[in-house]
């Protein structure tokens, strides 16, 4: 491994362990010397701040910004979990949450649902608890509850060595070996101190440094990547960079997975924090712009379908509008669900569903004659296009 002599302690150092392999001991943040925020990094930081501000403003123009958050949390859950090898799609997750289970649903949908629960738990806890080791451990416990890896002590810091690399590798042949377990509590404590004080660095730079440091510490036996990506969303919210958590970088990290890992490794091997920060800020800019466009597209779609419902549903238009409003946080439905929403007969609900299907608002997804289910087609497509782009 390249441990460049001119920056041996800027990110940390490799230390040979009793087993003969070398583990990385991270230096506390901030880096010394601090990141060079001149030139390209300064320009990128300015762009990123502007893109975040535009996104924040766009979300606040939505009739119910929390419904946008609802879908963004789920999109992030799917993409972040897919980076770790899960197969479940956004539709699988939404159907499972609506308790509409299908025999073909991937078994790992529970992992994705746990990610949503972990995100919501963390956002709720931020009202009373800062981003801290305690919060990180709570998030991990929720994330790993009852899924593969749950035997690996959810919420508990690891007490054995882990390593990162190809299947079947050992610590001696791994791509990267995080700090030995006895170093983990101090490393996390140092990270928490940095999160609280920030060393006078711009907030976005703090977030980028913190994510890389967390992934380097790798404090759990499983789930480190997902917790580290959740950490970004929590920090953006806590530091007031966004009023609502609608910036999720898993889309960008998945699209640029090889570079993501290479940039993190270059920090450890060469102390190259600047290249990592450029990559991170590029992600913030790209994903902010995409989310801003999605917010605008939601507004256009909503107005378009309001007009279509008014034009095509006649006396049933009021009920049609009520169904559409509910679909924003319940985008997969059955006739029975619509009947319960509207308090009408099954026949009446069936007619409403058929008419909403006729104007393209709903699409039947089972192919069955009975027990059919429908998805809020134009809305889900807005989020799935990005999911497909990231494959």
Automatic annotation (TrEMBL):
The alphabetical list of record keywords is:
ATP-binding, Nucleotide-binding, Nucleotidyltransferase, Transferase
Identify which residues the record assigns to the active site: 218
Pfam families, per database record: Fic, Fic_N, HTH_13
Which parts of the chain are coiled coil? Answer: none
**Keyword Transcription assigned:** no
* Keyword Nucleotidyltransferase belongs to the record: yes
Task: Read off the InterPro entries from this record.
Answer: Fic/DOC_N (IPR025758), Fido (IPR003812), Fido-like_dom_sf (IPR036597), Fido_containing (IPR040198), HTH_DNA-bd (IPR021068), SoFic-like (IPR026287)
Q: Where in the numbering of this chain does the Fido domain appear?
A: 131-282
Write one Gene Ontology MF term.
magnesium ion binding
Where ATP binds, per the record, is at 84, 218, 222-229, 260-261
Q: What is its EC number?
A: 2.7.7.108
Question: Reaction catalysed by this chain?
Answer: L-tyrosyl-[protein] + ATP = O-(5'-adenylyl)-L-tyrosyl-[protein] + diphosphate; L-threonyl-[protein] + ATP = 3-O-(5'-adenylyl)-L-threonyl-[protein] + diphosphate
Q: Assembly state and interactors?
A: Homodimer.
Q: What does this protein do?
A: Adenylyltransferase that mediates the addition of adenosine 5'-monophosphate (AMP) to specific residues of target proteins.
**Which protein is depicted?**
Protein adenylyltransferase
Instruction: State the species of origin.
Output: Aerosticca soli
């Amino acid at each position: 491994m390249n441990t460049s002599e001119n920056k041996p302690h800027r990110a940390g150092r490799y230390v040979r362990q009793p087993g003969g392999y070398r583990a990385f001991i991270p230096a506390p943040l901030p880096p010394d010397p601090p990141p060079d925020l001149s030139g390209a990094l300064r320009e990128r930081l300015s762009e990123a701040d502007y893109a975040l501000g535009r996104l924040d403003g766009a979300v606040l123009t939505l009739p119910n910004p929390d419904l946008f958050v609802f879908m963004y949390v789920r999109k992030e859950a799917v993409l972040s979990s897919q980076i770790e090898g899960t197969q479940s799609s956004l539709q699988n997750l939404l159907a499972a949450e609506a308790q509409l289970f299908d025999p073909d649903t991937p078994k790992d949908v529970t992992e994705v649902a746990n990610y949503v629960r972990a995100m919501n738990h963390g956002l709720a806890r931020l009202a009373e608890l800062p981003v801290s080791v305690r919060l990180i451990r709570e998030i991990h416990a929720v994330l790993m509850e009852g899924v593969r890896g749950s035997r690996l002590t959810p919420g508990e810091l690891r007490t054995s060595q882990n390593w990162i690399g190809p299947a079947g590798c050992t610590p001696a042949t791994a791509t990267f070996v995080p700090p030995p377990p006895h170093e983990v509590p101090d490393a996390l404590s140092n990270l928490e101190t940095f999160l609280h004080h920030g060393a006078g660095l711009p907030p976005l730079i703090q977030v980028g440094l913190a994510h890389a440091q967390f992934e380097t510490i790798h404090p759990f036996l499983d789930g480190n990547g997902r917790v580290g990506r959740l950490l970004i969303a929590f920090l953006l919210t806590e530091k007031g960079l966004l009023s609502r958590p609608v910036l999720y970088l898993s889309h960008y990290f998945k699209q640029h997975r090889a570079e993501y890992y290479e940039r993190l490794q270059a920090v450890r091997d060469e102390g190259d924090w600047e290249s990592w920060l450029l990559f991170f800020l590029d992600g913030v800019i790209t994903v902010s712009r995409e989310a801003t466009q999605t917010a605008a597209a939601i507004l256009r779609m909503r107005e378009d379908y309001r007009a279509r419902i008014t034009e095509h549903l006649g006396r049933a238009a009021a009920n049609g509008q009520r169904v559409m409003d509910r679909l924003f946080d319940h985008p997969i439905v059955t006739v029975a669900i619509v009947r319960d929403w509207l308090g009408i007969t099954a026949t009446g609900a069936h007619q409403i569903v058929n008419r909403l299907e006729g104007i393209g608002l709903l699409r039947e997804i089972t192919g069955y004659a009975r027990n059919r289910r429908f998805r809020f087609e134009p809305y889900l497509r807005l989020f799935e296009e990005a999911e497909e782009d990231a494959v």
